[in-house]
Design brief:
Elements lengths: L8 E7 L4 H15 L5 E5 L2 E7 L5 E7 L4 E6 L3 H8 L4 E4 L11 H6 L16 E4 L8 E8 L4 E8 L3 E8 L3 E3 L2
Antiparallel strand pairs: 1-5, 1-6, 2-5, 3-4, 7-8, 7-11, 8-9, 9-10
Length: about 180
C-alpha cells in the first residue's frame, strides 16, 4: 500500500538532554542517504529568541530550545520510520502511552510553535456559519468580522429566545452552511 503525503503527522521523540541537535542531524542524514524524504519530511527543534544579560551588563540575543529533550518529526509512521527514529543515537523513544507514538493534532502543532498551520477559510463576512465545537456547538450565526492575525472570527449568534450576542471563535470552531 502506497502512503500519501496527507498521512504525514508530527510525532515527538524524546532525547537525552543536549542531544537534540545530534538526533535531528542524524535523522536528516539518514533520510537523505536513503532517499526517504517522502516518509520523513521534516525534523524540528522549536526555539525562541531570548535576551540574556551577561555579568558585564551587556545583552545578547540567543536561541533557546522551547522543549529541551524533545525533537519533533513530521513523518508517516511505518515500521521503517519508527525504527529509524527510535534507534537514532541519543533518542530514547517516542512520546505516547507505553512509548506508543501518538501524532500531534494540528491545534497542538500550532500552539506548540512547531509549525504554522494555514487555515483555508471557506466563509466570509456576511455568511451564515454553524458552530461545530465548544459550548455553543450546533448554534448558527452571521460572520461579522474575520481576524486573520489572531485566527478568530466574530459571529452574531441568536440565543435565549431571540437575544443576539457577538461571540468570538477560533477559525476551526465554525463551518459554513452548505
Amino acid at each position: 500500500m502506497i502512503k500519501t503525503s496527507d498521512e504525514l503527522k508530527w510525532y515527538v521523540a524524546h532525547t537525552i538532554t543536549e542531544y537534540e541537535n545530534k538526533v535531528k542531524d542524524s535523522i536528516e542524514k539518514i533520510v537523505e542517504n536513503r532517499g526517504i524524504s517522502h516518509l520523513i519530511a521534516d525534523v524540528r527543534i522549536p526555539t525562541q529568541e531570548v535576551v540574556e544579560e551577561k555579568e558585564d551588563g551587556t545583552k545578547k540575543v540567543v536561541q533557546r530550545k522551547i522543549y529541551p529533550g524533545y525533537v519533533f518529526v513530521k513523518m508517516i509512521m511505518t515500521n521503517e520510520t519508527w525504527y529509524i527514529v527510535r534507534n537514532t543515537r541519543g533518542c530514547t523513544g517516542f512520546v505516547g502511552p507505553g512509548s506508543e507514538p501518538v501524532p500531534l493534532s494540528d491545534r497542538e502543532v500550532e500552539r506548540m510553535g512547531v509549525e504554522t498551520v494555514e487555515t483555508e477559510l471557506n466563509y466570509s463576512v456576511g455568511d451564515t456559519v454553524r458552530i461545530n465545537e465548544g459550548s455553543m456547538e450546533g448554534f448558527m450565526g452571521e460572520v461579522l468580522e474575520i481576524n486573520k492575525d489572531r485566527k478568530t472570527v466574530s459571529v452574531m449568534v441568536t440565543m435565549f429566545g431571540g437575544r443576539e450576542m457577538q461571540v468570538e471563535f477560533d477559525f476551526r470552531q465554525v463551518e459554513p452552511l452548505e
